[in-house]
Amino acid sequence: MNYNKLGNNIIVSEVGFGCIPILSGPLDIMPRHFNLPIKESTRILENAFDFGINFYDTAIKSEYGDSEEKLFHAFGNKRQKIIISSKAREYSYSGMKLAIESSLKELRSDYIDIYGIHQITPKNHIQSLDISTGAIKALIDAKKEGKIRMISVGTHFSETAAMCSKIPEIEMIQLPYNPLEHGLFDTALEYGLDIKKTIFHKIYGGGLLPSLCDLSDLISYALKQNPISVFIGIGTMIEFNQFKDAYNQKRNDIDKIDIPFNECNRCQKCHCNHGVNISLVLRLRAYAMNGLHRWAQKAFHNNCTNECVLCNECLSYCPRHVSIPVLIKEANLFFYKLDNYKEVLK
What we know:
Elements: E1 3-6, E2 10-13, E3 15-18, H1 38-51, E4 55-57, H2 61-64, H3 67-75, E5 83-88, H4 93-107, E6 112-117, H5 125-128, H6 135-144, E7 148-154, H7 158-165, E8 170-176, H8 182-190, E9 198-201, H9 215-223, E10 229-233, H10 237-248, H11 278-289, H12 293-303, H13 324-339, H14 342-345
Parallel strand pairs: 3-4, 3-10, 4-5, 5-6, 6-7, 7-8, 8-9, 9-10
Antiparallel strand pairs: 1-2
Helix pairs in contact: 1-3, 4-6, 7-8, 9-10, 11-12, 11-13
């Protein structure tokens, strides 16, 4: 396993362990999770550690179930040897302060290596980064008190990622990266993203991509961009052994991986004057038509309420010359059919 330096004094494995798959609980999130008993999650986590992984990504209990607690059961006697990154969707000072205390309790630790704002967006970043009342103040205070060592943010927005990476107090930026969504990172670089602060997640596309391409290719594809680390979700010993074999076969000559329905790479350079979130609609279309239809359908209905009016103005923004209105229409039709075909939803 290779290791990289994050910030001034944290050394992390170039592949980190994404803890969603090991959680238990009725959480409807992507990627899937396996409701593992503690004995089995401990076995997987210990094997990952023995392979050289020292970096573990989790989140507050309301988001990632009991994954923080499971990290304690696996590593309580070797806390100093691992790096834990946790986070919360809290944007106010009081909310983030409570979240940090909750995570400390679940981890049964007096400190967390990295803690951050989960899913910071253009709509909440002003509140989140308010130095007087925002979540960032709670994080800065917690760092001064020794409760956390480093501040992070996670986002799905390229401009937001670049902007946050320029804030000295924020030392880690977490972004999705895979063959369906690499444009987000590419655009963030154009905006000035600091690659020395960048961590990738969703390398497997929420568990979708391993069924469509080689695991070693996915890992190689992400590592070639030279992020500090990449988080990979592992939920069974079978998945761990598959990852281990794939990592050992990684190479440096992967420039492209072809995936069906990936006309949009989520570069976020498109714009709709009528409120359609184009990159999100096309992302959900790609995920749904490649097999993650249940998760994508729910996300579509919760977040994509504006309808395309076929003005075609968006066509002038797309560097790939994607037929955006056609694909949006196709997405709407696909999800409409799912709504009216109950067998698919079982």
